[in-house]
């Protein structure tokens, strides 16, 4: 039976939790990376493997090795662990910029590197990188430092797409605006009920991850407000 396997980080909250549940409902087997592993209530048939994962600790090779030993394959990566510190590029301290780069850029790059051979072996490997509309434009001073890292996340998606194309690997940057999560609610007064629901992002990932190699989407931009470009 051809049951594909996805690794999802940040899977215990926010967008990552909804993506994991949606992929599970689609029939995927999952390896869930969480700082504090906790089996989801919806995993009623043991299709989820849990791994204690901290995006700052360089654990990606160990995670990939353990997941591959469990399932014998890896078909997709959805690294949802993220960090947002709302400061301008002037006010942000060096260690704050480094912390965001570590989680938003370097960790997903390490995960892709660690899983590259299994993704190639799949013949239709998928990497869905949660970017942000902050990776497409800088809307305010206080989003500047975060936007710097998310521009790098979007660039990473394009770089992985280029590197993996001939091996059947397709990478997509998912770029939402405000999504109704605790992270977004902590940095804006925009009404939560007017933000994009995380289940909508999960449904988009479910669509994109299942597209054939001949229907590649490099970027998927999602917004809850009208902007000139997005």
Give the helices and strands as they follow along the chain: EHEEHEHHEHEHHE
Strand content: 15-25%
| Average pLDDT taken over every residue | 97
Shape, please? globular
Fourth CATH level, the homologous superfamily: NAD(P)-binding Rossmann-like Domain
- Low-pLDDT stretches: none
**Sheet having the most strands:** 7 strands, parallel
The helix content, as a percent range, equals: 25-40%
Count up the domains: 1
Structural class: alpha/beta
Q: Per CATH, what is the topology?
A: Rossmann fold
Task: Write down how many β-strands occur, each being a DSSP E stretch of 2 or more residues.
Answer: 7
Widest β-sheet, arrangement of strands: 3-2-1-4-5-6-7
Nearest-angstrom radius of gyration? 17 Å
* CATH domain class: Alpha Beta
Q: What is the number of helices? A: 7
Give the N-to-C terminal Cα separation: 41 Å
- Second rung of CATH, namely the architecture: 3-Layer(aba) Sandwich
Pfam families: adh_short
Family: Belongs to the short-chain dehydrogenases/reductases (SDR) family.
Keywords: Oxidoreductase
Organism: Larsenimonas rhizosphaerae
Summarize the SSE layout with pairings.
Blueprint: E1 5-9, H1 14-25, E2 29-34, E3 48-52, H2 60-71, E4 76-79, H3 94-114, H4 116-122, E5 126-130, H5 144-164, E6 170-176, H6 182-185, H7 198-208, E7 219-222
Helix pairs in contact: 1-7, 2-3, 3-5
